[in-house]
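Hello forum,

I keep getting stuck at the same step: I have a sequence, I want structure tokens, and every attempt I make locally crashes halfway through. Rather than fight my setup again tonight, could one of you with a working pipeline run this one for me? It's a single chain of 786 residues.
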Amino acid sequence: MIFKDLLGKELLFFDGAMGTMLQARGLQPGELPELWNFTHAEEIKAVHTAYLEAGANIIKTNTFGANRLKFAGTEIKTAEVVQAAVRIAKEACAGFAKSFVALDLGPTGKLLAPYGDLPFEEAVAIYGEVVRAGRDAGADLILIETMSDTYETKAAILAAKENSDLPVVVTMTFDLDGKLLTGGDVAAAALMVEGLGVDALGFNCGLGPAQMAKLLPTLLAYTTLPVALNPNAGLPVERDGKTVFEVGPEAFAQLMHDLISQGVSLAGGCCGTTPEHIRKMVELCGDLPAGGGREHNLTAVSSYGRAVVFGKVPLLIGERINPTGKPRLKEALTNSDWDYVCRLGLEQISAGSHILDVNTGMPGLDEVVSLSQVVPALQAVTDTPLQIDTSNYAAMEQALRLYNGKPMLNSVSGTEESMAKVLPLVKKYGAVVVGLCLDEAGIPATAAGRVAVAEKIIARAADYGISRTQIVLDPLALTISTGSSNALVAMEVIRQLHARGLHTVMGVSNISFGLPGRELINSTFFTLSLAAGLSSGIINPQSKAMMDAYYSYLAVAGLDDGCKDYVARYADAPKTTATTVSEMGLFDAIVKGLVGESRKAAAVALTKEQPLEIINKYMIPALDHVGVGFEKKKLFLPQLLMSADAAKAAFDVLRDAVGGNGEAKGEKVIIATVQGDIHDIGKNIVKVLMENYGYSVIDLGKDVPVAKVVEAAQTYGAKIVGLSALMTTTVAAMEETIAALHAATDCHIVVGGAVLTKDYAAAIGADHYAPNAVSAVNYVNDVLGK
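Reply #2:
Ran it on my machine without issues. Output:
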């Protein structure tokens, strides 16, 4: 029996928690669960068997944390751990029909660059090692679970697809507001994951069934794939010194029945769920049909944190990151001045761009290198989706690979070479591609000829398994200075494609090439094209004439409800929009996360003000501004970390000016990830912010024994200790550490981690629960009187 043959056709059940079961069988705080594949193989098999007997069809291997990072510095070989885990799971499944072994891939515990220190390709390699071992050992499918970062998710998916032919299921962990740790929302994550070619996607961990119910409708609206749900048994609470979850088996089954009935195909459990939870769910839900896939006519792109959908209102694609005719941009690209490029992008976003076109092609520049550096640089400071614009196939693939989200790609033409080179990349990386209405014969003179080329591109894309919804067609505007009917032909192509339900994009300014007063022609043509059905225009959003045309059209066409956007823009005195990059102050440079600009602005400020005045007047207010935005869910982790880096760069300039040696002078704060836990993303984020507020942070690292934390608190006389834990299996170690600190010191203890809640943190003795890094910094400021 093959898993893929049943997926979406029959309701299949995952097992439940492994860590909870192993703790009940004697797993000690700090002990690595994966090593039980060697030392307690029969216990692991017994857990698998219990779930199979309860009715589970899919057994997750005991490999959630198995990777070379976790085993660094030991004699443990990742491949051997994985092979043992798969073997045990297969032995357990041998006596059960319709049972499958899922190779379980969890997060690495590291934040990927540019926000963290793990390079993207190294993450792909780490996951690839696990995938190859699981494939060779006979796993039936791959489960990528508990992912809170779209970029790490993409690395794991690419590793799975490039190292095996196994079906891939992805489940991600969102908070109550429907956000990932790195700021991604359900829509953006779903678009990227489906685009990368997985077989099913959904949610696991972090939330119980009731909380996931609020997120499920959005997921169903943004994916055509079968949906998987593996919630916790509610949220954790402390009872009689033990971690328990609040939703019992019968309540869990009823909640899951309601969710499965909405269109779920794979259902199981995560933290706190037991064989009895699975048994009750199977008994109640076993006769329900699988939700399967669903059809929707959705054309959308995304960044790590934002989805942009075609068809609701016409979209604006900012055109200014293109070196053609721009000497200053050429200079910036030549000198790797990415801050300048980022400022061009940020200014276009402020002016109203929904998507940014990114083109770095110019003579003498290695476009593979430049494009692969500009794309991550822009994504580090904005969540606006990007359109990768290149005809260099190598640069195209590298940029698509490194892009965090579902990109837009400009472009493929109707030539055989272009379709053969570009369409496989579109399929692999899940891009929405611009189709140029030209082929070997050039640009057809008639609308019918261009539409025929468009149909050819759509047909060839279908051969690669690419839906017509993933193609946005460019009718190609030729200048009216060489043909008086050129504008009419382009608009007729738009009308015909629009009538076929196809989306369009066009570089509007081409229409006026060679003419004086180009903005007059451009804005008029833009308005007429929008009326003809143009879905998106590649324009200069800092052109007043173009933006006036856009907002006026929306109001007249009934696309601006109550003319709210029009009134907001024009109620006051007419606005002018700058088309040149202006000087940026230190406050803005830090808020926008521009490291190079922060250095420059700090140096300028030093010519007028004293260092302490600069810190208090610009830098701390900027960090506070970003922190407030983060807490209000207006800014997210990438912006928070880039702003922290920008502030650090400015601090370095001030320190050097006064002859400092770089040693922190502030109050000492100790931070650690507790024993047995190797996930230190949250801890590292807290460290960065604490240091920017002037604290001297003693980072004890991850998997830190209780005694070492206590010793450090006593040695440094720290008033604050911060503890982090991700896994339910390590919460006991956190409680033990807290008790030891209270017994030996009078320090304040702040805790955080995905498995914790405010009530649970209080129950295990913590003085403060920090749901995020900003909350931790605010607490420390309050305690220490800053």
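The CA atoms of residues 648 and 692 lie 6 Å apart. If your local run keeps crashing, start a new thread with the error log.
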